[in-house]
Amino acid sequence: MIIARKRKFGGALKGAAIISIGGLLAKILGALYRIPLTNILKPEGMGVYQTVFPVYTVLLTFSSTGIPSALSKIIASGENEKAVLKKALSLFLPLGLLGSLLMAALAYPLSLGQGNGDAFFSYLALAPSVALVSVISCYRGYFQGKKNMVPTALSQTVEQAVKLAVGLPLCYFFALSPRSGGALACLAVTASELSALIYLKTKSAKPLSETPASDAAFGFKRLIFTVVPVTLSSLVIPLARVFDSFAVINVLGSYSADATALYGIYTGSVESVVGVPVAVCYGLAVASIPHVASAVVEKNAARTRELIFRAVSLTLLFAALLGGALSLLAVPFTEITYRGLSTADRALTADLLSFSFPCVILLSLHQTSSAVLIAEGKPFAPCIFAAAGVLLKAAIEVLLLKIPEINIFAALISDFFCYLIAVFLDLVYIISINKIKRGKKIAYENYSGGRGN
């Protein structure tokens, strides 16, 4: 029995490794794109480019973000994967198209409301991506539910490779201003999503029309009731980013002429680098969902606890190692990679990276703990806990942004408290519903595949 458990967890680790390697490769390609892009567009151009992404992410959340996790859970629970995919596409493609239309229609008022009218054309260039990502998410959830993480990993790599190949030449030769640079960079994102969709479509083994009639019983009701809470859970952090895009530029703009540039440094230069270790740990979150969901369906409490313990422990280990390395190497990394920035901007970027170590750990843990709760059938819990964190973040950020000596560091400090509250509540709830006792004995049993009921 212990051998069987180890084999099953080995499958989870293999899936996590595939997603993590794919995510790492994608982030490396993303860095190879983002670093020269920052040097080409400068902080102000990056500020224009980054301004559109909080709203874009919220629209994606409504139309696609919860889909991979939800479909993965449904398929892992035993539903026919083709029937699930067919229903998902018929529901979420129209939602994605609606999101694209909304983004295009609201481009002008949104850009003005954010205090950055130059972002108007960036919104238009990025709008088609909402519909494309909706379909991409359905295919990723389909493959992940089958515990095949390769298509997801490779599609992420395709996205970044195409964005690099298209975006850098466009911006280098044709970006004549921050406005045009932001729009061209967003156009490259749309091209990258189209390429990823083409790849995933070709990987789908059989035409959806071949779905057996007997499997048509899978209905929209279960799909919606599974996706909606996951979507709500995924929506909270993007809403915090929307708040950032309004608060940072408008509040800092009251006493600093560099508000857009500061926002571009934090969201473009810093968060993109912080995302590398977080992406590596993301594989553990994605891979844990179908395996934990299967264990819950089997009512195997011991295996469920074992999977949770190892997923959280490995996330903490990798996040601490990678985040620590990022913090220690922040200064030389910034000096080498962001040579196109001014000395003052490089120093600010290095300082922000140095202090981002706790956020790397907490955000990585939040990914895994939220995935565990989704797999255990508690998808509303991470939504509520993350919302509590975001409310605290908003209060802290507004107060600190008004202090010139703190300025953009207010975003980093408020992020720390946001993730801290969310992770703490996630873990407390996970422990309570799984009846994980304190002490070395339980930890050892979980780690070694100990006995359970």
The string of secondary-structure elements, in order, is HHHHHHHHHHHHHHHHHH
pLDDT averaged residue by residue: 83
Question: Biggest sheet, open or closed, and with what strands and sense?
Answer: none
* Regions with little confidence, pLDDT below 50 for 5+ residues: 1-7, 208-217, 437-453
Number of domains: 1
Structural class: mainly alpha
Shape: globular
User: What is the alpha-carbon Rg in Å?
Assistant: 22 Å
Number of helices: 18
Helical residues, percent:
over 70%
End-to-end C-alpha gap: 13 Å
Number of strands: 0
The proportion of strand residues reads under 5%
Question: How are the SSEs ordered, and which strands pair?
Answer:
Layout: H1 2-51, H2 53-65, H3 67-76, H4 81-105, H5 107-113, H6 120-126, H7 128-145, H8 150-174, H9 178-203, H10 220-252, H11 259-297, H12 301-328, H13 330-337, H14 343-354, H15 357-375, H16 380-401, H17 409-434, H18 440-448
Brief characterization of the structure:
By secondary structure, this protein is mainly alpha-helical. It is built from 18 helices and no strands.
Protein described:
The chain is mainly alpha-helical and 453 residues long. The protein has one domain. The protein has helices at 2-51, 53-65, 67-76, 81-105, 107-113, 120-126, 128-145, 150-174, 178-203, 220-252, 259-297, 301-328, 330-337, 343-354, 357-375, 380-401, 409-434, 440-448. α10 (220-252) packs parallel to α16 and α16 (380-401) runs antiparallel to α17. The longest helix has 50 residues, at 2-51. It is globular, with a radius of gyration of 22 Å.
